[in-house]
Amino acid sequence: MKAGIVGANGYSGIELIRLLMNHPLVELEMLISHSTQGSEIQQLYPHLTGFLDRRLEDFDADELARRTDVVFFATPAGVSKDLLPECLKRGLICIDLSGDFRLKDPAAYEKWYQQSSADTALLNDAVYGLSEINRRQIAGARLIANPGCYPTASLLGLAPAVKDGAIDLGSIIIDGKSGVSGSGKSMVPGNLYCEVNENVKAYKLGTHKHTPEIEQAVAAMSGKNESITFTTHLIPMTRGLMCTIYATLAKGYSTKEFLEMYERFYDKSPFVRIRPLGSWPSTKEVAGSNFCDIGLNVDGRSRRLTIVSVIDNVVKGAAGQAIQNLNIIKGWDEQTGLALAPIYP
Amino acid sequence: MKAGIVGANGYSGIELIRLLMNHPLVELEMLISHSTQGSEIQQLYPHLTGFLDRRLEDFDADELARRTDVVFFATPAGVSKDLLPECLKRGLICIDLSGDFRLKDPAAYEKWYQQSSADTALLNDAVYGLSEINRRQIAGARLIANPGCYPTASLLGLAPAVKDGAIDLGSIIIDGKSGVSGSGKSMVPGNLYCEVNENVKAYKLGTHKHTPEIEQAVAAMSGKNESITFTTHLIPMTRGLMCTIYATLAKGYSTKEFLEMYERFYDKSPFVRIRPLGSWPSTKEVAGSNFCDIGLNVDGRSRRLTIVSVIDNVVKGAAGQAIQNLNIIKGWDEQTGLALAPIYP
Amino acid sequence: MKAGIVGANGYSGIELIRLLMNHPLVELEMLISHSTQGSEIQQLYPHLTGFLDRRLEDFDADELARRTDVVFFATPAGVSKDLLPECLKRGLICIDLSGDFRLKDPAAYEKWYQQSSADTALLNDAVYGLSEINRRQIAGARLIANPGCYPTASLLGLAPAVKDGAIDLGSIIIDGKSGVSGSGKSMVPGNLYCEVNENVKAYKLGTHKHTPEIEQAVAAMSGKNESITFTTHLIPMTRGLMCTIYATLAKGYSTKEFLEMYERFYDKSPFVRIRPLGSWPSTKEVAGSNFCDIGLNVDGRSRRLTIVSVIDNVVKGAAGQAIQNLNIIKGWDEQTGLALAPIYP
Amino acid sequence: MKAGIVGANGYSGIELIRLLMNHPLVELEMLISHSTQGSEIQQLYPHLTGFLDRRLEDFDADELARRTDVVFFATPAGVSKDLLPECLKRGLICIDLSGDFRLKDPAAYEKWYQQSSADTALLNDAVYGLSEINRRQIAGARLIANPGCYPTASLLGLAPAVKDGAIDLGSIIIDGKSGVSGSGKSMVPGNLYCEVNENVKAYKLGTHKHTPEIEQAVAAMSGKNESITFTTHLIPMTRGLMCTIYATLAKGYSTKEFLEMYERFYDKSPFVRIRPLGSWPSTKEVAGSNFCDIGLNVDGRSRRLTIVSVIDNVVKGAAGQAIQNLNIIKGWDEQTGLALAPIYP
């Protein structure tokens, strides 16, 4: 199977390259980047020297259709909504890592992304690619809206409790902490080393685009619409994302009962690992891998559940989950090309 | 005025040295450290070369009484409860940076610190040194229990809203993020560079010693006992601490109304700075200084207040607030020796 | 005395603000920044809240002459050569932190900086502000060319040995390592967090602008022109600069004899600290301060001297030395406003 | 083929596990660690959860002989010299990642390591496992002394020039910069986060154990004994090591001619990548991989060659090269199990 990557020059694009080179059933055929077209990928990214001898090309849907079977869009918000339909209508499988096809409601997209939305029919067709939750729908899909990094960690952390009805949905608070690669290679002051190093910064309080995405998915799992409080923080590290999630108990489970429920829920999900009682995951323990590690604690005094969920934002939060979704679409083993252990330390 | 530091070899001790050398009314007379007694401080800490020509000495209450007027205890939990009373009875002003005299209830200390508590009478005498809140009691005190780093950021962030009754106390959730200097120079694996770097780690869920300290202070401000959910995270940075605090509104204030209330509340407190609407503080903006910067946001959708409160954990969270308290005890300007701008970047 | 800062919005400008606010004999009157004129400095840099209530202004030599006595230029290369002469002719003391007036030979400037040089007469008038070496010339100067960060650490490390004739000048190799603040707030990919973190990068081999500056100063000290090998590395930290300097011995001194020579040489220089035998400085030991710490080692086997010299690049390598030079010009104690201990850890 | 790891609990041991799990022809059978015997590896290192279900065992040569074919020693200096001979005499292939069998001269070991050396006969038998240089000897070996991290980067950087006679051996200066994982998990103050972060530190000037190892290998390549100046620096990062090497030209080659010579020399070495003219490698570009990337520059003014050589110290500087050596011993493709791209960023 031949693949193309649109936005191959960004961090998610580069990670797709690393992972797909390791995939036995996919061959990287086209690297698309408007801004760096014509350059050799090895010159832009010398770490790839000896691995991939390709030039970046400009976007051309016909060329993509001629040479590839699947296209990954690792582009900023607002790009794939225009380019992806061209690929879709030419019969390509499209996996979009941006937010353009995640929200079902065009008005929500326009409010949170501050621009016009993708075609409504396509929004309806798009399958939300949270692999562990939506396997069945993903299996037959042509258009995957790959989840955002914060939603991935949040929703995998929440899903068992939400589906069980064990927590009060209106009480959910998500405190997210992310490394800087999440904001890509954007040339903004906030991404400069001297601004990030030795610093923790809260940002976009009440306005982060991942908020409606999380709410929509919680509503899909529970059948109820509730507002969720979601706050994000920039942490001085490159990779890694943690969501610490708080919710009031609706059922009187103990930590141990929650752990058993989570173990059962993710029994068939090799990329979700539940920590034993009294142990909580750290981001380094999933670095470079497609895992989501989850730890739980019930505070008996406050009748509140705390969920600690970690991922590598560039892998499970972007490129890795995209490939996992391709595996599911094609009916391959979900772990194909992704069975790498985290790098530690 | 002459000062002694017990535990001068740790990070809080070293910071007391840096700040007191800059204090016009205090002279550093004795540096106490059992483990490194006999060594010259400049040899242990070459950055002090040319500033302070002193050897570390062993603890001796008589000697302290003879040569000093005030003693700072920058010692691990469980040390000052035994040594400090010896200094107190010899007439010295005692400022304890450890947790030994913070909890009024001996049973709470024994439960959370897992060791026997200080003398109950002294626990009653000790004044909780949260400078901005307890100025009046601090003014006449001989024994100050200097607050922990997390409680300082949390309580300064909560105080105006709690005293106003504007939030539901039972709903308070504190998500704390701290640099590593907070855990001192302890030789534990968790403090090794390779374990901390490129990592975020949640720790001590439901068991952190600062929990009862925060609850006790909130109860003192509100008259009501409520359990608070408090979670701590280790962040890859040396200095800096942020508490992101969540609470459900009890009154229907807007962000703007909260900001005005906070501005009024801290009108006479030069070390607390309230951020304007739409701006939230980052830890680097207080690095090396005694400031606590606070930003606020009301999420109208969820009727919840988010408070972002940052300090330098070694300054306002330890050595700086200790000196601020000495200034208050002595009736000096609160900023004496502490009027330094943060170092940026 | 009233001061203006041109380029107040960059990292050196911000550090000048921090240090001058602490200077008892200088008042900050004008902050100049073309790109951010009209903004309040506290809004751009919230860490200054409560310290300095000023708006950034556009450059206006008449206004500077009317309101200030000394002007610091913390501007990128190529700016002060045009603006500074306007201030100089209006009688202002001018201290240039950029490279525009450092090289006496206009052709050298044009070769290494790739642009036309400043007026030759002014190049001749400019005094190279390496405080510890050129005190006498600085004392009467109106135009100071403040040294670069690498040259400061290199030349203070080399001066005693070079002046003594103890090393072979042609053998000098300088291996420089710098934190990222040295390259300012430039929006270039190489300054992004994700590119710098967990990375060491060698850059500008054989082409770094500080090369001719170091060679010119070594020639001035020795009377001989020699090529020096100078290599620079970007290190994942914000502040701090180390030069490890290698040279073949011309005289058979032991480490101990070198240490004694260096101690004597810097006897009257409070900002240079020589480490005892067997101890070498690290950059953190001078963080936030105006010190240059130096350690020495003679390798008997290879007859080679190794010099380890560290500074805070933003202080002794820029803003601190500029203020030290103003102190010398005005005949004030060299340490005025600069007597702060390093911040550790 | 079955493998055992002695010292499986340290960073090199853990990296051997990560890489061997990915090796198609080797199965991990025994994990040995005296200090943590009895524990499950997944409990000590939760990042391995789901990968390896094994308990750490105590060292037992008979058991190793019974269950494995090859043993890796990832132990501190002074351990393998006693344990390894027991395995060797039981017919196991032994690959020692420590320094115990690297120096041919027992007196040199005793001088630099400050303890008694291994058996002299075994020192003679041991093959120095610098894969790219000693392939032929490695092919038939039973005992490999795997090179140190600094020597690996230094010698791969030097080999072509040394073998060609293109540089003056007595002029070689190696300025090494390493991440902290190189010093393992040792509980020493210098490895604490707060001491390493925002800091560069020169250490062990003139006394680093890798000095005689480099000199011995240069002598083996050139037939001449020369003293080399070697200085090491600790850099605030976890993984990565750079050696910047300086040498005076013995032949008048240009940079281009050196590059061609290096390309030819490493033509059959897939793990050494030579950078094109004007480009120098950074450590991040080899992170997590077994590559050694090399850049070159001739400074025509000083007639000096500068070589920049980078590796991941835990991979090519330890575990990766050890596996590469096993591949060579067994006649497998050198890249078996090691063909992973670096992780970037």
From TrEMBL, chains A, B, C, D:
Principal cellular location given in the protein's record: cytoplasm
This protein's name: N-acetyl-gamma-glutamyl-phosphate reductase
SMART domains: Semialdhyde_dh
Pathway where this protein functions: Amino-acid biosynthesis; L-arginine biosynthesis; N(2)-acetyl-L-ornithine from L-glutamate: step 3/4
Highest taxon above the source species: Bacteria
InterPro entries: AGPR, AGPR_AS, AGPR_dimerisation_dom, AGPR_type-1, NAD(P)-bd_dom_sf, Semialdehyde_DH_NAD-bd
Active site: 149
Ranges for domain Semialdehyde dehydrogenase NAD-binding: 2-141
EC number: 1.2.1.38
Pfam family, one: Semialdhyde_dh
Entry's family note: Belongs to the NAGSA dehydrogenase family. Type 1 subfamily.
Gene Ontology MF terms in the entry: N-acetyl-gamma-glutamyl-phosphate reductase activity; NAD binding; NADP+ binding
Gene Ontology cellular-component terms listed: cytoplasm
